[in-house]
Automatic annotation (TrEMBL):
Keywords on record: DNA-binding, Transcription, Transcription regulation
The HTH cro/C1-type domain, residue ranges: 32-87
SMART domains: BTAD, HTH_XRE, Trans_reg_C
PANTHER family tied to this protein: TRANSCRIPTIONAL REGULATOR REDD, TRANSCRIPTIONAL REGULATOR REDD-RELATED
PROSITE patterns for the chain: HTH_CROC1, OMPR_PHOB
Name recorded for this polypeptide: DNA-binding SARP family transcriptional activator
Length: 351
Protein backbone atom coordinates (compact mmCIF):
# COMPACT_ATOMS: atom_id res chain seq x y z
CA UNK A 1 0.00 0.00 0.00
CA UNK A 2 1.00 3.62 -0.41
CA UNK A 3 1.45 4.08 3.32
CA UNK A 4 3.75 1.08 3.45
CA UNK A 5 5.84 2.49 0.66
CA UNK A 6 6.07 5.76 2.56
CA UNK A 7 7.12 4.02 5.77
CA UNK A 8 9.16 1.17 4.27
CA UNK A 9 12.83 0.93 3.51
CA UNK A 10 12.36 0.86 -0.25
CA UNK A 11 10.99 4.39 -0.46
CA UNK A 12 14.23 6.10 0.50
CA UNK A 13 16.64 3.38 -0.58
CA UNK A 14 16.35 3.36 -4.35
CA UNK A 15 16.22 6.85 -5.75
CA UNK A 16 17.38 7.07 -9.33
CA UNK A 17 20.58 9.03 -10.06
CA UNK A 18 20.72 11.89 -12.52
CA UNK A 19 23.85 12.88 -14.40
CA UNK A 20 24.17 16.05 -12.29
CA UNK A 21 24.41 14.08 -9.04
CA UNK A 22 20.84 14.77 -7.88
CA UNK A 23 18.17 12.09 -7.70
CA UNK A 24 14.66 11.48 -8.89
CA UNK A 25 12.45 9.61 -6.42
CA UNK A 26 10.66 7.35 -8.86
CA UNK A 27 9.40 4.72 -6.43
CA UNK A 28 6.46 6.52 -4.84
CA UNK A 29 5.70 8.17 -8.19
CA UNK A 30 5.44 4.77 -9.89
CA UNK A 31 3.19 3.31 -7.20
CA UNK A 32 0.88 6.31 -7.07
CA UNK A 33 0.49 6.45 -10.84
CA UNK A 34 -0.16 2.72 -11.03
CA UNK A 35 -2.93 2.83 -8.42
CA UNK A 36 -4.48 5.94 -9.96
CA UNK A 37 -4.61 4.53 -13.48
CA UNK A 38 -5.95 1.23 -12.17
CA UNK A 39 -8.72 3.18 -10.44
CA UNK A 40 -9.35 5.02 -13.75
CA UNK A 41 -8.99 8.42 -12.14
CA UNK A 42 -7.50 11.52 -13.68
CA UNK A 43 -5.01 13.54 -11.66
CA UNK A 44 -7.74 16.15 -11.13
CA UNK A 45 -10.23 13.56 -9.87
CA UNK A 46 -7.71 12.05 -7.47
CA UNK A 47 -6.71 15.48 -6.19
CA UNK A 48 -10.36 16.39 -5.55
CA UNK A 49 -11.03 13.15 -3.68
CA UNK A 50 -7.91 13.53 -1.54
CA UNK A 51 -8.37 17.23 -0.86
CA UNK A 52 -5.10 18.12 -2.59
CA UNK A 53 -4.21 20.43 -5.44
CA UNK A 54 -3.78 18.89 -8.86
CA UNK A 55 -0.29 20.38 -8.89
CA UNK A 56 0.60 18.40 -5.76
CA UNK A 57 -0.57 15.14 -7.36
CA UNK A 58 1.33 15.97 -10.53
CA UNK A 59 4.51 16.71 -8.60
CA UNK A 60 4.23 13.42 -6.71
CA UNK A 61 3.72 11.40 -9.90
CA UNK A 62 6.70 13.08 -11.57
CA UNK A 63 8.99 12.44 -8.61
CA UNK A 64 9.50 16.11 -7.81
CA UNK A 65 8.49 15.74 -4.16
CA UNK A 66 10.79 13.21 -2.54
CA UNK A 67 9.20 13.00 0.91
CA UNK A 68 5.41 13.31 0.90
CA UNK A 69 3.90 13.67 4.35
CA UNK A 70 2.33 10.64 5.97
CA UNK A 71 -0.96 12.51 6.14
CA UNK A 72 -0.80 13.10 2.38
CA UNK A 73 -0.12 9.42 1.76
CA UNK A 74 -3.05 8.40 3.96
CA UNK A 75 -5.39 10.78 2.15
CA UNK A 76 -4.29 9.45 -1.22
CA UNK A 77 -4.75 5.88 -0.03
CA UNK A 78 -8.25 6.64 1.19
CA UNK A 79 -9.11 8.42 -2.06
CA UNK A 80 -7.95 5.38 -4.01
CA UNK A 81 -9.97 3.02 -1.82
CA UNK A 82 -6.95 1.24 -0.38
CA UNK A 83 -7.26 -0.41 3.05
CA UNK A 84 -5.13 0.97 5.84
CA UNK A 85 -1.86 -0.94 6.31
CA UNK A 86 -1.92 -3.64 8.95
CA UNK A 87 0.49 -3.47 11.83
CA UNK A 88 0.90 -7.21 11.43
CA UNK A 89 2.25 -6.85 7.89
CA UNK A 90 5.75 -8.01 6.94
CA UNK A 91 8.67 -6.08 8.35
CA UNK A 92 9.85 -3.73 5.54
CA UNK A 93 13.46 -4.38 6.56
CA UNK A 94 12.98 -8.07 5.68
CA UNK A 95 11.52 -7.58 2.22
CA UNK A 96 13.40 -9.17 -0.64
CA UNK A 97 14.85 -7.45 -3.67
CA UNK A 98 15.75 -9.39 -6.81
CA UNK A 99 18.06 -8.22 -9.59
CA UNK A 100 18.24 -9.93 -12.98
CA UNK A 101 19.67 -7.12 -15.17
CA UNK A 102 23.11 -8.59 -14.73
CA UNK A 103 24.19 -11.49 -12.49
CA UNK A 104 21.28 -12.94 -10.50
CA UNK A 105 21.12 -11.39 -7.05
CA UNK A 106 18.76 -11.73 -4.11
CA UNK A 107 18.89 -9.46 -1.08
CA UNK A 108 16.75 -9.84 2.01
CA UNK A 109 16.87 -7.00 4.49
CA UNK A 110 19.71 -5.48 2.48
CA UNK A 111 21.91 -8.58 2.76
CA UNK A 112 22.96 -10.81 -0.14
CA UNK A 113 21.57 -14.35 -0.02
CA UNK A 114 23.30 -17.44 -1.36
CA UNK A 115 20.96 -19.02 -3.89
CA UNK A 116 22.13 -22.61 -3.88
CA UNK A 117 22.92 -25.01 -6.73
CA UNK A 118 22.75 -24.04 -10.42
CA UNK A 119 19.34 -25.54 -11.15
CA UNK A 120 17.78 -23.87 -8.13
CA UNK A 121 19.24 -20.55 -9.30
CA UNK A 122 17.84 -21.17 -12.77
CA UNK A 123 14.34 -21.73 -11.39
CA UNK A 124 14.44 -18.40 -9.58
CA UNK A 125 15.90 -16.64 -12.63
CA UNK A 126 13.24 -18.02 -14.95
CA UNK A 127 10.40 -17.04 -12.62
CA UNK A 128 11.90 -13.57 -12.15
CA UNK A 129 12.01 -13.07 -15.92
CA UNK A 130 8.22 -13.61 -15.93
CA UNK A 131 7.18 -11.70 -12.79
CA UNK A 132 3.60 -12.09 -11.58
CA UNK A 133 2.89 -14.51 -14.44
CA UNK A 134 2.43 -18.27 -14.49
CA UNK A 135 5.32 -20.38 -15.75
CA UNK A 136 4.43 -23.98 -16.54
CA UNK A 137 6.41 -26.69 -14.82
CA UNK A 138 7.22 -28.31 -18.18
CA UNK A 139 8.93 -25.13 -19.33
CA UNK A 140 11.03 -25.12 -16.17
CA UNK A 141 11.97 -28.77 -16.65
CA UNK A 142 12.92 -28.15 -20.28
CA UNK A 143 15.29 -25.37 -19.17
CA UNK A 144 16.84 -27.36 -16.34
CA UNK A 145 17.45 -30.54 -18.34
CA UNK A 146 18.08 -29.71 -21.99
CA UNK A 147 18.29 -33.34 -23.05
CA UNK A 148 16.57 -36.03 -21.00
CA UNK A 149 14.93 -35.03 -17.74
CA UNK A 150 15.25 -37.54 -14.90
CA UNK A 151 12.22 -39.42 -13.62
CA UNK A 152 12.40 -37.32 -10.47
CA UNK A 153 12.28 -33.98 -12.34
CA UNK A 154 8.88 -32.93 -10.97
CA UNK A 155 9.93 -33.74 -7.42
CA UNK A 156 13.21 -31.86 -7.87
CA UNK A 157 11.44 -28.74 -9.16
CA UNK A 158 9.09 -28.87 -6.19
CA UNK A 159 12.08 -29.11 -3.86
CA UNK A 160 13.80 -26.14 -5.52
CA UNK A 161 10.63 -24.06 -5.18
CA UNK A 162 10.26 -24.98 -1.52
CA UNK A 163 13.85 -23.93 -0.78
CA UNK A 164 13.46 -20.71 -2.72
CA UNK A 165 10.39 -19.79 -0.68
CA UNK A 166 12.47 -20.10 2.47
CA UNK A 167 15.22 -17.91 0.96
CA UNK A 168 12.81 -15.20 -0.19
CA UNK A 169 10.91 -14.99 3.11
CA UNK A 170 13.05 -16.61 5.80
CA UNK A 171 10.95 -15.36 8.74
CA UNK A 172 7.49 -15.71 7.20
CA UNK A 173 4.95 -18.45 7.97
CA UNK A 174 4.42 -21.18 5.34
CA UNK A 175 1.20 -19.68 3.98
CA UNK A 176 2.91 -16.34 3.36
CA UNK A 177 5.78 -18.05 1.58
CA UNK A 178 3.38 -19.98 -0.65
CA UNK A 179 1.53 -16.76 -1.49
CA UNK A 180 4.73 -15.13 -2.78
CA UNK A 181 6.01 -18.11 -4.76
CA UNK A 182 2.66 -19.53 -5.75
CA UNK A 183 1.85 -23.00 -7.07
CA UNK A 184 -1.21 -23.17 -9.31
CA UNK A 185 -1.88 -26.54 -10.87
CA UNK A 186 1.24 -27.43 -12.82
CA UNK A 187 2.53 -23.85 -12.90
CA UNK A 188 4.39 -21.47 -10.62
CA UNK A 189 4.19 -17.71 -10.21
CA UNK A 190 6.57 -15.34 -8.43
CA UNK A 191 4.60 -12.45 -6.98
CA UNK A 192 6.84 -9.44 -6.63
CA UNK A 193 6.29 -5.74 -5.99
CA UNK A 194 7.48 -3.14 -8.51
CA UNK A 195 10.22 -2.10 -6.08
CA UNK A 196 11.28 -5.71 -5.51
CA UNK A 197 12.62 -6.47 -9.00
CA UNK A 198 14.87 -4.37 -11.23
CA UNK A 199 13.16 -5.75 -14.34
CA UNK A 200 9.83 -4.24 -13.25
CA UNK A 201 11.50 -0.93 -12.43
CA UNK A 202 13.13 -0.95 -15.87
CA UNK A 203 9.73 -1.49 -17.51
CA UNK A 204 8.10 1.28 -15.52
CA UNK A 205 10.85 3.78 -16.33
CA UNK A 206 10.81 3.05 -20.06
CA UNK A 207 7.03 3.34 -20.07
CA UNK A 208 7.29 6.74 -18.38
CA UNK A 209 9.88 7.78 -20.95
CA UNK A 210 7.65 6.81 -23.87
CA UNK A 211 4.78 8.76 -22.30
CA UNK A 212 7.05 11.79 -21.96
CA UNK A 213 8.10 11.51 -25.62
CA UNK A 214 4.46 11.39 -26.69
CA UNK A 215 3.86 14.56 -24.67
CA UNK A 216 6.85 16.27 -26.29
CA UNK A 217 8.85 16.35 -23.05
CA UNK A 218 12.16 15.00 -24.32
CA UNK A 219 14.10 16.24 -21.33
CA UNK A 220 12.01 14.14 -18.95
CA UNK A 221 12.15 11.23 -21.39
CA UNK A 222 15.94 11.39 -21.36
CA UNK A 223 15.99 11.33 -17.56
CA UNK A 224 13.74 8.28 -17.43
CA UNK A 225 15.68 6.42 -20.12
CA UNK A 226 18.93 7.24 -18.36
CA UNK A 227 17.59 5.96 -15.04
CA UNK A 228 16.37 2.77 -16.73
CA UNK A 229 19.76 2.07 -18.29
CA UNK A 230 21.55 2.66 -14.99
CA UNK A 231 19.75 -0.37 -13.55
CA UNK A 232 21.78 -2.63 -15.83
CA UNK A 233 24.89 -4.35 -14.49
CA UNK A 234 25.69 -6.53 -17.51
CA UNK A 235 24.15 -9.38 -19.48
CA UNK A 236 20.80 -10.50 -18.01
CA UNK A 237 21.34 -13.42 -15.62
CA UNK A 238 24.95 -13.56 -16.74
CA UNK A 239 25.86 -16.17 -14.12
CA UNK A 240 22.93 -18.53 -14.78
CA UNK A 241 24.38 -20.79 -17.46
CA UNK A 242 21.20 -22.85 -17.84
CA UNK A 243 19.30 -19.79 -19.11
CA UNK A 244 22.02 -18.45 -21.38
CA UNK A 245 20.67 -17.88 -24.88
CA UNK A 246 17.07 -18.48 -23.84
CA UNK A 247 14.34 -16.47 -25.54
CA UNK A 248 13.44 -14.36 -22.46
CA UNK A 249 17.09 -13.41 -21.90
CA UNK A 250 17.58 -12.54 -25.58
CA UNK A 251 14.41 -10.44 -25.62
CA UNK A 252 15.52 -8.55 -22.54
CA UNK A 253 18.92 -7.81 -24.07
CA UNK A 254 17.17 -6.46 -27.18
CA UNK A 255 15.06 -4.19 -24.98
CA UNK A 256 18.21 -2.77 -23.45
CA UNK A 257 19.60 -1.90 -26.88
CA UNK A 258 16.30 -0.36 -27.99
CA UNK A 259 16.20 1.74 -24.82
CA UNK A 260 19.75 3.00 -25.40
CA UNK A 261 18.81 4.05 -28.93
CA UNK A 262 15.71 5.88 -27.70
CA UNK A 263 17.79 7.52 -24.98
CA UNK A 264 20.18 8.79 -27.62
CA UNK A 265 17.27 10.12 -29.67
CA UNK A 266 15.94 12.03 -26.65
CA UNK A 267 19.42 13.34 -25.88
CA UNK A 268 19.80 14.57 -29.45
CA UNK A 269 16.75 16.80 -29.02
CA UNK A 270 17.91 18.44 -25.81
CA UNK A 271 21.70 18.25 -25.65
CA UNK A 272 21.32 17.66 -21.91
CA UNK A 273 22.33 13.99 -21.75
CA UNK A 274 25.41 12.01 -22.69
CA UNK A 275 24.50 8.73 -24.41
CA UNK A 276 27.91 7.92 -25.93
CA UNK A 277 29.17 5.71 -23.01
CA UNK A 278 26.01 3.60 -23.05
CA UNK A 279 26.02 3.31 -26.83
CA UNK A 280 29.72 2.47 -26.94
CA UNK A 281 29.30 -0.24 -24.29
CA UNK A 282 26.47 -1.92 -26.16
CA UNK A 283 28.07 -1.50 -29.59
CA UNK A 284 31.20 -3.25 -28.35
CA UNK A 285 29.05 -6.14 -27.15
CA UNK A 286 27.06 -6.33 -30.42
CA UNK A 287 29.58 -5.43 -33.14
CA UNK A 288 27.21 -6.07 -36.08
CA UNK A 289 24.16 -4.14 -34.85
CA UNK A 290 23.71 -1.50 -37.55
CA UNK A 291 21.08 0.69 -35.88
CA UNK A 292 23.10 0.84 -32.68
CA UNK A 293 26.29 1.84 -34.49
CA UNK A 294 24.41 4.41 -36.57
CA UNK A 295 23.10 6.07 -33.42
CA UNK A 296 26.60 5.96 -31.88
CA UNK A 297 27.96 7.73 -34.95
CA UNK A 298 25.37 10.49 -34.67
CA UNK A 299 25.96 10.93 -30.93
CA UNK A 300 29.72 11.18 -31.46
CA UNK A 301 29.29 13.71 -34.24
CA UNK A 302 26.87 15.75 -32.12
CA UNK A 303 29.64 16.00 -29.53
CA UNK A 304 32.12 17.28 -32.09
CA UNK A 305 33.82 13.91 -32.69
CA UNK A 306 33.25 13.57 -36.43
CA UNK A 307 36.48 11.65 -36.99
CA UNK A 308 35.54 9.10 -34.32
CA UNK A 309 32.09 8.76 -35.87
CA UNK A 310 33.59 7.99 -39.28
CA UNK A 311 35.92 5.43 -37.69
CA UNK A 312 32.89 3.65 -36.26
CA UNK A 313 31.43 3.51 -39.76
CA UNK A 314 34.65 2.17 -41.27
CA UNK A 315 35.02 -0.50 -38.59
CA UNK A 316 31.49 -1.88 -38.79
CA UNK A 317 31.61 -1.75 -42.59
CA UNK A 318 34.71 -3.95 -42.51
CA UNK A 319 33.09 -6.40 -40.08
CA UNK A 320 29.92 -6.65 -42.17
CA UNK A 321 31.97 -7.38 -45.29
CA UNK A 322 34.36 -9.86 -43.64
CA UNK A 323 31.86 -11.79 -41.52
CA UNK A 324 28.60 -11.57 -43.48
CA UNK A 325 29.56 -10.48 -46.97
CA UNK A 326 27.27 -7.45 -46.65
CA UNK A 327 27.53 -3.74 -47.29
CA UNK A 328 26.19 -1.18 -44.77
CA UNK A 329 22.43 -0.75 -44.77
CA UNK A 330 20.51 2.52 -45.07
CA UNK A 331 20.70 3.41 -41.37
CA UNK A 332 24.49 3.38 -41.45
CA UNK A 333 24.84 5.08 -44.80
CA UNK A 334 22.37 7.80 -43.80
CA UNK A 335 24.24 8.37 -40.54
CA UNK A 336 27.53 8.64 -42.43
CA UNK A 337 26.02 11.18 -44.80
CA UNK A 338 24.75 13.27 -41.87
CA UNK A 339 28.19 13.21 -40.27
CA UNK A 340 29.88 14.27 -43.50
CA UNK A 341 27.39 17.10 -43.96
CA UNK A 342 27.92 18.22 -40.38
CA UNK A 343 24.20 17.91 -39.62
CA UNK A 344 24.15 15.07 -37.13
CA UNK A 345 21.74 15.47 -34.27
CA UNK A 346 21.32 19.21 -33.94
CA UNK A 347 20.87 20.17 -30.31
CA UNK A 348 18.01 22.57 -29.70
CA UNK A 349 17.50 23.91 -26.22
CA UNK A 350 14.94 22.34 -23.91
CA UNK A 351 11.42 22.97 -24.96
Amino acid sequence: MLARYRAGYAYEAQREPRMDGTHLDLRFADVLRSYRTTARLSQRELADRAGLSVGAVRDLEQGRRRTPRRSTVRRLGAALGLPAPSAAGPDPARRFVLRVLGPLELRVGGRAVRLGPPRQRAVLGLLALCPNALVHREEIIDRLWARAAPATAVHLVQAYVSRLRALLLPDAPPERRRAVLESTGASYRLRVRPDGLDLLRFGRLTEQARTAVAAGNHLLAGERYEAALRLWRGTPLADVDLLRGSAPVATLAEQRVATAIRYAEAAARTGRHHPVPQLRLLADADPLHEALHARLMLALAAGGQQAAALRVYAEISARLADQLGLTPGPELTDARLQVLRGGADPRPGPG
